[in-house]
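Long-time lurker. I teach an intro course on protein structure, and each term I like to show students one example going from raw sequence to a predicted 3D structure in token notation. This year I'd like something fresh instead of my usual example. Would anyone be willing to generate the tokens for the chain below so I can use it in lecture? Attribution to the forum is fine with me.
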Amino acid sequence: MADFPASIDYQDLFRSLPGSYLLLAPDGTVLDNSNDHVTVSLLPRAQAVGRDIFDAYPSAPESQRDLAASHEQVRRTLRPDTMPLLRYDLERPAELGGGTEERYWRLTHYPILDAAGQLQFILQMPQDVTAEHRAAEQAAQAQQALDEAQQRTQFILESLPVLVWTNRPDGTPDYFNQRWLDFTGKTLAEMKDIDWADLTHPDDRPGMLQGWQQALAAGTPFQYEYRLRRHDGQYRWLLIRASPRRDAAGRISMWVGAANDIHEQRQMVQELLQANEQQAALSDQAYQLYQKAENQRETYESLFMQAPALICILRGPAFRYEFVNTAYQQLFQGRQLTGLPVLEALPELRNQGIQELLENVYRTGETFHGNEVPLQFQQADGSVYDGYFNFSYQLFQENDRPAGIMVFAFDVTDFVRARQALEQLRENGPAPDGPSLV
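-- Reply from a regular --
Happy to contribute to a lecture. Here you go:
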């Protein structure tokens, strides 16, 4: 083996190494460092050499404790030791603008042994992993935001008082919300494998199956009213609507569907139709009103923004509008809602008991269901809308603490007016010239 030239300056060679190195005596005294280390540490070599490492490069007590433990590990085992991620901020000299740089490091200490196998030096190799650490933090934050969004979406899907499901592009079902499971009394696995023909009323089965197959083949929305057997054996009328969701290329990626139990409404319409021939006009008009109200709930072009129901999310004890869907905003055209507390956005509700209901739900956690609640509020043209609403206030939590209230409502004004007219007709009898709602 050839001998190295005696003219080589090994100290200069060490200082010129392409990397950040710090050479220590076994007791931690700084003996030398590479030029890259001088640059990274922002401390001139002359101010470090000959001093204890903790004196030359002061750091937080916990950092010094971990460094000392790593040095002791090397002294005891004579083997390299890599420390956990360490935060060590750098103080910039005044000529570089001053201030502190937040930095993160991964340090490895290597033992340098003499010919007798005794510890002669400790070589510290710090790696600046600040960029890597920040990228990992950003990735973790992004994942947390994604997880929270998924949890929020799942909460809304499970909380909606509507039977929601999804299908794969070929029509195979792959999700049903809890409302479906409660209605049918079956598990999610059973729902995915179920034969819907067995649950559908025999009279409605051919039309339902034919309509769904046609919509599936054409990729068009499907809407149908049919009777489905509930868990207790009763057939209930449902209004269902399924819409295809397409990707950027126009291909169907999934089907989204929603169903409403309209059994009582159907019975009311049937009662109107059977009353007598003189009430035929009234029955027809009441059914049209029913259809108009149902149209608010059956249009599910999307689960949230295009839902036919009035949906909003009120954040915190101030009940600030965080989310308002299209139907809800349309009820208050021209009025700013998002970002404002309820009573600031809609001050006319102050004396109508809404604030008290919200505070009670937020405080107790008990869901409130309102049926045909009368409300009055201003419209964009300055007129007062006097209507009736079915709505629920349901508390949602984040990190096991109250976070806000989810509102789900239907405008049932037309239904109430129709029923009131029907009740008045029953009480007074048809007018001489026939029934009328006017």
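Some talking points for your students: Residues 296-301, 434-438 have pLDDT under 50 and may be disordered. DSSP finds 15 helices and 18 strands in the chain.
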